[in-house]
């Protein structure tokens, strides 16, 4: 559990900012958002494959653009 102790010199804004940073670093908020809805194993894998394909496509496009720019086209 993310936790931020109140310091005598800091105000409420500072406390809230430290708590949010701690929450982000711990990954608890990300896990909560991911587990908010049930996703079957098959659906999870399909989404994973779609994301991987998108990354591959983007990488190929960047490589192609780099080759064209090296040729001066």
Your description of this structure?
- The mean pLDDT is 89.
- The protein is flat and about 65 Å long.
- The protein contains 3 helices and no strands.
- It has 2 domains: 1-37; 38-73.
- With 73 residues, it is an all-alpha fold.
- The chain has helices at residues 12-26, 28-34, 41-71.
Low-confidence stretches: none
Largest sheet: none
Listing every helix as H and every strand as E from the N terminus to the C terminus, the arrangement reads HHH
- The helix count comes to 3
Structural class: mainly alpha
Mean of residue pLDDT values: 89
Q: What proportion of the residues is helical, as a percent range? A: over 70%
Task: Quickly count the domains.
Answer: 2
Percent of residues in beta strands?
Answer: under 5%
Number of DSSP strands?
0
Q: From the alpha-carbon coordinates, what is the Rg to the nearest angstrom?
A: 22 Å
General shape: flat
Termini Cα gap: 55 Å
């Amino acid at each position: 559990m993310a936790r931020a102790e109140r310091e005598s010199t800091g105000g409420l804004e500072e406390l809230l900012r430290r708590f949010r940073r701690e929450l982000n670093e711990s990954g608890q908020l990300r896990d909560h958002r991911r587990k908010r809805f049930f996703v079957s194993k098959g659906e999870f894998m399909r989404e994973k494959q779609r994301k991987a394909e998108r990354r591959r496509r983007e990488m190929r496009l960047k490589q192609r653009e780099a080759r064209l720019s090296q040729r001066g086209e």
